[in-house]
Specification:
The complex is a heterodimer of chains A (631) and B (357). Chain A is built from 21 helices and 25 strands. Chain A is of the alpha/beta class and 631 residues long. The N terminus of chain A is likely disordered. In chain B, helix 3 packs across helix 4 and helix 5 packs antiparallel against helix 9. Chain B is globular, with a radius of gyration of 23 Å. The termini of chain B are far apart. Classes of the chains: A alpha/beta (631), B alpha/beta (357). Strand 19 of chain A pairs parallel with strand 2 of chain B, so a sheet runs across the interface.
């Protein structure tokens, strides 16, 4: 920690060691809170802590300043222990204005710390935040039970930059760096990653590098020197599995998973997408990887995006498109065509709050049934869900493999929480990734009346996949289409028996995916009182809840479903070893319907649709209540 | 930035030269391009003539059959790919251009044809049509315009005239029609032409030129639906009225019609008909058609909406500009050259990393 003059002051501060902490940066959507949060994340990764993040921002790019609906937040939970959620309760809230305090105060734990930008607590801002004429800083009742640190963030930033010859706006925008510096000091994080990042970000504007770095250091030194903060916290490194790590966001990891699938399979990646929140970041990420042969296509609409994906897959490429809820609805007909033509592709749905436009920047898991059934006719397809930011990589890789192995579109479900969240990620080695071989058809596959013929719908008995013949292959010319196909020949057929047969065959083909699924990983107890069944991004909260339930004496286990269609074949036997079944989902109960359809067991649902992920405590409470009621 | 190809100005427009088939190659006849599927269009449908023309033309083009792909949407015309012994896809309503874009962008070496109709291309798929044209994906779009919904049994289409009495407009349609040529010009198409099912010679000539063009070629083909809209284009296709009611655009030649007895000249920005036999004007007063002039193409395309004007056929416009897939490919190559072929392990580690042992 490169501080020059503070050694003497430092001695009077006591350093307290913590196992874990949760910090929340909150301010106006123009205050740079997402940057502040992500830089704190990077420093925390450098300090070798385990971590989990929750960026939470409004749908408006610059919502009116000072309003409660314009508040943007970045929550980060980190520790020397295993960290799987962004934290139930906040230990430190950094509130840049009254609205940020108003919106987030209830999330701070009793006794928690609040750093407040005192300069922003002016009559106008107080009114906008709904505090009326009462300044909460003068209201002992309101802030009783919290450690409140009033810091003149704006004024000290101005002071620090008064000789930098910058305009007022630029100076004001730098105050988040003061907050970042202070928070870094408070939790003994290194300051260097943020300094380096600033140097990179403003490489073309040296005056801004200098100014921001200066303010950042000022914030850091302020922590050291002021007498307000008498305690500095330390969180020792977490005991993570040995390996090389990096911090990774869900969307980044998803993009890498797709590039990995393309590299390993030698199928050129064609990625097609129409901008939509929160899936657009995937397009941004992949469009940078052109030297991996990745072609990205920004389509004119959602339908064109799936159409182009179908075209690329027909051409023998790894066709992938991503979207979010309403976009999946628009793609439904195209996905149905892909089911009928049995072409491999991956459709990523980064779910968000619905229905309709809903809550574009908030998380939800309410597209599961849309993914399962949201097409005309009987159109089953495999569904895979990503459970953590780092897991997005493996889920994407797996989705591509399943698509190609079984010649089927696959829907990969992520959500705003898992896509925007970050965590430390043990970097896999490309040679450890599962083999990904693509056998293209290159010769006729049947003799018909003595003539070599290519039957585009002849089946691989093992996978029930049909052959994939690329245009350009002589002798294998064939036509695909949305009309029902005759078994094996692929000719248009309206024959009643054939339609029944083909409908069953397409369904059986999807069921065959279960063949290659690994045994279920049951977390916690593998038999006992209660099993919690979840899917996707709820994994962290569920596992944390299981730890707490087991600490409380309950024999509890958890199953996080990576594959929802088909369900793993050993799920029934795992469930049979427990007495109670809790199914938490960020929807009104969708997986629970699929489970009830399959197993005659008394599943109990736990629903939440608030645009926010589960807190572990919510699952613990529901589990205890359920076990009590039924015993 | 991708570089533009060197400008080539052939003396004859592309596709107008002699047949490209070299004499040494074995002759492939129409049969090689006919699939084993029974053709299921109504007897007497104009689609038959178009199919036959395409099947006859294909062996004459310098392409391998396995590299040819026909992609269609939904509608009568969209059954076309089933009858071609090539790769093909009968996709969903209006979306053929999207599938074709994905295919051509990822496999630029393929020879892609889109077959569509007036409802498919201009109604449900209108958005995709304008975007494929603006991108200039190198392929041919054959729009079979019969001014009616045939497969759904006779509703007015986006090209049906106002007042059209159909099953869904028993008192006459009140929706004004689109002019497909104007739409394609407005969408920056780089090759725009019109022909008709009944003039297979002209049809073949236009298809050949469209194929030779590098970029999106848009061809409106007047096609007779003898069940729901019989005779919609007879004025332009039947001997008795054709000379008087049509004008064939030829690059570098005066705009004459009615067996050379009438011409089109410009009065300000408006085309007007004049008589060469009566009066003082001669063929030198007629517009010399220039298919590289967008302004002229725009003006002449509007003649289709003027009932007293002969209907223009032929190539309205062509322009050489880089194709979408070419620019996409060049970008991939340029980035690869600059950064080197991607290394997966390096990419996975391309961040601040730390080791835990």
């Amino acid at each position: 920690m490169g501080s020059d003059s503070s050694n003497t002051v430092k001695e009077v501060k006591s350093v307290q060691s913590l196992r874990e902490a949760t910090v929340l940066f909150a301010g106006d959507s123009g205050d740079g809170m997402q940057l502040t949060g992500s830089q704190f994340t990077l420093a925390t990764a450098f300090a070798h802590n385990d971590l989990s993040t929750l960026p939470d921002f409004p749908a408006e790019i610059r919502a009116p300043a000072g309003t409660t609906y314009g508040v943007s937040g970045y929550q980060l939970h980190f520790g020397s222990v295993s960290v799987r959620t962004p934290g139930d309760e906040v230990d430190l809230l950094v509130a840049m204005n009254p609205a940020a305090l108003k919106v987030n105060l209830s999330r701070v734990r009793s006794g928690g710390a609040i750093v407040i930008n005192e300069n922003a607590f002016k009559p106008h801002n107080l009114k906008l935040a709904g505090y009326g004429d009462v300044n909460p800083l003068d209201n002992e009742e309101l802030l009783r039970g919290y450690q409140v640190f009033k810091v003149e963030l704006s004024r000290m930033t101005e002071e620090a930059l008064k000789d930098h010859n910058l305009d007022k706006k630029v100076i004001d925008r730098s105050k988040n760096m003061f907050a970042l510096g202070l928070a870094l000091w408070l939790y003994s994080r290194p300051i260097e990653p943020a300094l380096d990042w600033l140097a990179q970000k403003f490489s073309s504007r040296p005056e801004l590098i200098k100014a921001n770095q200066h303010v950042l250091k000022k914030g850091f030194h302020y922590g050291e020197t002021t007498e307000d903060f008498i305690v500095q916290y330390q969180i020792p490194p977490a005991e993570l599995e040995p390996g090389v790590y990096r911090a990774i966001r869900g969307v980044e990891s998803l993009a890498l998973g797709l590039v990995a699938a393309s590299t390993k399979s030698k199928l050129p990646l064609f990625y097609s997408s129409y901008p939509i929140t929160p899936a657009s970041d995937l397009l941004h990420n992949l469009s940078r990887h052109k030297n991996f042969g990745v072609k990205t296509f920004q389509a004119e609409d959602e339908i064109a995006a799936i159409g182009a994906t179908i075209g690329a897959s027909f051409g023998g490429c790894l066709g992938v498109c991503a979207t979010s809820g309403p976009g999946l609805t628009l793609k439904a007909e195209g996905i149905g065509l892909a089911v009928m033509m049995e072409l491999p592709m991956v459709i990523v749905n980064v779910q968000r709050g619905g229905p309709s436009t809903g809550l574009p920047t908030k998380t939800e898991q309410s597209d599961l049934l849309q993914a399962m059934y949201g097409r005309n006719g009987e159109a089953p397809l495999p569904i895979i869900a990503a459970s953590t930011p780092g897991d997005c990589f493996h889920a994407a890789y797996e989705a591509c493999r399943v698509a190609v192995r079984h010649m089927t579109p696959v829907i990969l479900l992520a959500d705003g929480y898992v896509a925007n969240g970050s965590e430390p990620w043990r970097i896999p080695s490309s040679k450890d990734l599962k083999d990904f071989h693509v056998p293209f058809a290159n010769k006729p596959n049947r003799k018909v009346e003595g003539k070599d013929t290519f039957l585009p719908y002849l089946r691989n008995e093992d996978t029930l996949a049909r052959p994939w013949a690329k245009p350009g292959t002589p002798g294998l010319e064939h036509r695909l289409g949305g009309l029902e196909k005759e078994h094996e020949t692929g000719s248009v057929s309206y024959d009643p028996e054939n339609h029944q047969f083909m409908t069953t065959l397409r369904a059986n083909k999807v069921k065959k995916v279960a063949q290659i699924l690994p045994p279920l990983d049951v977390y916690g107890d593998t038999e006992g009182d209660l099993v919690i069944i979840g899917w996707g991004s709820t994994q962290g909260a569920i596992r944390t809840a299981v730890d707490r339930l087991r600490d409380g004496g309950l024999k509890a286990g958890a199953v996080q479903l990576r594959n929802i269609n088909p369900l793993p074949s050993d799920l029934g036997s795992v469930l049979s070893r427990f007495d109670h079944y809790l199914v938490p989902e960020l929807n009104m109960g969708q997986l629970v319907r699929i489970l009830r359809d399959r197993f005659l067991l008394p599943f109990v649902k736990l629903s939440k649709v608030q645009g926010q992920p589960f807190k572990a405590s919510e699952i613990v409470d529901a589990a205890i209540l359920h076990c009590k009621q039924s015993s | 930035m991708p570089t533009l190809p060197p400008s080539k100005k052939p003396t004859l427009p592309p596709g107008l030269g002699s047949r490209r088939l070299s004499p040494s190659k074995p002759k492939i006849d129409r049969k090689a391009y006919s699939s084993d599927q029974d053709v299921r269009w109504c007897p007497g449908c104009g689609d038959y003539a178009i199919l036959a023309s395409v099947q006859r033309l294909m062996p004459q083009l310098d392409v391998k059959r396995e590299n040819v792909v026909f992609i269609s949407g939904i509608g009568c015309s969209s059954r076309f790919p089933y009858y071609m012994e090539t790769y093909g896809m009968h996709s969903i309503h209006g979306r053929a251009p999207t599938v074709a874009t994905g295919l051509k962008a990822s496999r630029p070496e393929l020879d892609v044809w889109v077959v569509t109709g007036d409802g498919d291309a201009l109604s449900i798929g209108g958005n995709h049509l304008i975007h494929i044209l603006r991108r200039n994906v190198n392929l041919q779009i054959l729009l079979f315009n019969n001014q009616i919904y045939g497969l759904t049994k006779g509703q007015f289409s986006p090209t049906s005239e106002i007042g059209k009495v159909t099953k869904s407009s028993p008192f006459g349609s009140v929706s004004p029609p689109f002019n497909p040529i104007s739409i394609s010009l407005g969408a920056s198409a780089s090759f725009v032409a019109r022909t008709a099912d009944r003039d297979t010679k002209h049809l073949t000539q236009i298809l050949r030129r469209a194929h030779a063009h590098q970029g999106s070629s848009f061809i409106e083909i007047y096609q007779n639906c003898n069940i729901y809209n019989d005779g919609a284009f007879f004025a332009f296709t039947e001997k008795a009225t054709k000379p008087e009611r049509t004008i064939y655009l030829e690059h570098g030649k005066p705009m004459l019609f009615s067996n050379g007895s009438k011409g089109i000249r410009l009065a300000g920005f408006s085309p007007v008909v004049f008589d060469l036999e009566e009066g003082h004007l001669s063929s030198e007063d007629a517009i010399v058609y220039d298919e590289t002039s967008l302004e002229l193409a725009e003006i002449v395309s509007r003649m289709s909406q003027q009932p007293d004007m002969p209907r223009p056929f032929g190539v309205f416009y062509r322009e050489e500009r880089p194709t979408y897939e070419q620019m996409l490919q060049e970008q991939v190559m340029a980035v690869t050259e600059k950064r080197g072929q991607g290394d997966l392990d390096k990419l996975l580690h391309a961040a601040d990393t730390w080791t835990i042992s």
